[in-house]
Amino acid sequence: MLTPGNLHGLEEVAVPHRLIPVVVAIVVVVASAPAQDVIDGFAAQTVRYTGGPYDDEAFGYRLYVPKPLDPGRRYPLIFFLHGAGERGDDNQKQMRHFPELFKRRAYREKFEAIIVAPQCRVKKRWADVPWDTQQSSKLTKNPSHQMRAALLALDEVIAKHPVDEDRLYLTGLSMGGYGSWYLATRQPKRWAAVVPICGGGPEADAARLAGVPLWAWHGGADRVVPVERSRRMIEVIKRAGGAPKYTELKGVGHFSWPQAYAMDGALPWMFEQRRGRERRVARKRVLPVIDVSKSPNGVVPMPERGVPRTVRRNFQRYTKLVAPNRKSIHILVQDGVSDEQAVRAREVMRFYLTNAPGTRFGADKTKVANAMADREATLLFFKSEREAAAVFLGPMGKLDLPMQDLYATECVVEGSRDYLQNRGRDATLEEVFHLVHDQGIIPALPGYQEQLLAATKNAMEKSLWIAKKEWIREGCTTHEYIISVIDVRYGMWAHDRREDGWAFHGEYRFNTPIRLRAGDPKGLAAMKMYLPESLDFEVRIDASFDGEFTLSHDPGRAWTQKSRHLTHATLTGDEPSGLTGNDRANRLTGNRSDNVLSGLGGDDDLRGGAGADVAVYRGAKSDYRIRRDGATVVVEDTKQERDGADRLHDIERLRFIDGTVKPPQ
Q1: Is the pLDDT of residue 587 over 50?
Q2: How many whole angstroms separate alpha carbon 114 and alpha carbon 74?
Q3: If 0-12 CB within 10 Å is exposed, 13-18 middle and 19+ buried, where does residue 472 land?
Q4: According to the model, what pLDDT value does residue 133 have?
Q5: 422 neighbors 558 (Cβ within 8 angstroms)
Q6: 632: helix, coil or strand?
Q7: CATH no. for 4-272
Q8: What are the structural domain ranges in the chain?
Q9: Strand duo 614-616 + 54-64: pairing
Q10: Average pLDDT of 398-405?
Q11: CA 508 to chain centre
Q12: What pLDDT, on the 0 to 100 scale, is given for residue 7?
């Protein structure tokens, strides 16, 4: 039954065997009494709002301003959103729970702030989303009209009073907890701190809050708003690299705000936060500094000393990247993963963290790499998916490391049989980018994350990309969507004709760069804000390869749909082989055997090895200027748009269409 004395945010109605959360509508039989001008120091104010069903209508709010104000001082501001039981148009009910605490002198003196407490109309909500479900609702295109009116009041107060806009604090309970989550997600850069209590938010967009100081509270026995709503929001934010605080009150039902708003609850922490101040979370690093410099390929056995036992037990080798802040981004490698696969994964990560001149967000990736290293971002390279499942269920899953998995069965080395026959799914670009996105881009480049969110939303609304339900539930749609764009842009699905033009087995509508450019220009534009036109990392051709590995498209060899997007390649092993470039500035390196290297267009760097190596050109010898520059031979084509100007190292022969010559000594 409903107990009038317990009217608050959301109420419970008791029925046999279960409790069903419902919204309580309070029926007012008599006319509301006029609002008192001042209650406990809170002055009655109104703001006029036009929108939806409202035409220049007055919305009430309460305003508390400390007295006396110190001349020249700017004050923090608390924006409080009440629960459903305080809805109305009397401009009084919202004084309960939080504002009434400021009757007490101790609160007024300890938490000296301007407070804005708007009131939501009966049967309306701060966020137009359902409450009686464990499922999250997406962020709506626009705030509710109630929230818009409240924000007008907030803006009015900021304009007229000495507010420190770097100390805007947002909090709300129950219905206001929902409002706090949704408003913070919509305006993550506005708030110095957010304290949502017993509410739920848009999990699909929660990653936006990774950089926001946030402390959520929820009763562990809440039968009105499922506690899972707060748990999942916190989980998504943490996965995105955030460091939110979360207090779950064991045995407490819906009334969790008294503890949250206690003198020693969230308020002291909230008042310590300031927008724009870099948050540094002290944490002990899990892995030591591991020296890889003595290994030719940078992959070393896992050290015995200083490494947690569970790491040594599950991973036998190690490699890494070192960020500009001189901290490590780790790659832990199992037996069953080849060194070449480990190197490939590392070089893909290096590519994602290498500056891309001319891009909006990728021209300087220092902050991204440093953010990953600060968090000890770790790629776990397993020999199989089965191994990964077993390890994550054990102690390894409890380490304070942000981790991303990759399997040997889904990392295909260029030039291998699987690569040449287009067998199996190569997920290296995907899984490595997940780690870079979640632990680097989200915390370091919030502006780019906003662009990715917009592109994802556009693709979903237009059914260009089909999101799995678990991705929506877990709030990871952005990092799943953008990798579809990346994979297709770099030709990873162009050879696959089984899906009627779709990629990712029916998830993404386009499978070639041309189709992508025409069908999802917004997604392509978002990708190109961070990444370059081609895959500019060093690929090491599998040691088993013999023949010609080309970086140019050949319709007769389907695998060149992938290789055409590469820029640099190195032959490994001992097989006599060849490398052919494309119209970009290639770096082509031979192996220990005899190699034939052809750079084609662009200004290339051709490097031979221990064998007898030949550089091939498409014109007559008389078309080229050949000279020695120290240990390097320069071959410059005098014809425009053909072979460019190449620099040669350890090349024994130059082959032209009219003959072969030795380079000058």
Answers
A1: yes
A2: 10
A3: middle
A4: 67
A5: yes
A6: strand
A7: 3.40.50.1820
A8: 4-272, 302-528, 535-661
A9: unpaired
A10: 88
A11: 20
A12: 28
Give the DSSP H or E segment for 197.
Answer: strand 193-197
In three state form, how does the secondary structure of 563-628 look?
Answer: HCCEEEEEECCCCCEEEECCCCCCEEECCCCCEEEECCCCCCEEECCCCCCEEECCCCHHHEEEEE
Tokens representing residue 413 in the block: 């080395």
> CA 88, CA 122: separation in Å to the nearest integer?
5
Q: Do residues 513 and 491 lie in contact, with contact meaning Cβ atoms separated by under 8 Å?
A: yes
- For residues 199 and 225, is the Cβ–Cβ distance under 8 A? yes
Cα separation, 290 vs 568, whole angstroms: 28
Give me the pLDDT at residue 285, please: 87
The secondary structure of 121-146 as a DSSP string is PTT--SS-S-SSSSS--PPPSS--HH
Cβ atoms of residues 647 and 630 within 8 Å: no
Query: Which tokens is 259 given?
Result: 């503890």
> How are beta strands 114-118 and 193-197 bridged, if at all?
unpaired
Which tokens in the block code for residue 479? Answer: 């990092």
pLDDT digits (tens, 9 = 90+) for 377-395: 999 999 999 999 888 878 8
As a whole number of angstroms, the distance between CA 65 and CA 161 comes to: 9
- Structure token digits, residue 575: 């097989």
User: Which amino acid appears at position 415 of this protein?
Assistant: G
Asked if 572 and 540 touch (Cβ cutoff 8 Å), the reply is: yes
User: Tokens standing for 374?
Assistant: 């600060």
pLDDT above 70: percentage of residues in the chain = 92
Taking residues 159-187, report their average pLDDT: 94
> DSSP secondary-structure letter at 292?
-
Render pLDDT for 35-64 as a digit per residue (tens, 0 to 9). Answer: 567 777 899 999 999 988 998 899 999 999
pLDDT above 50 (res 1): no
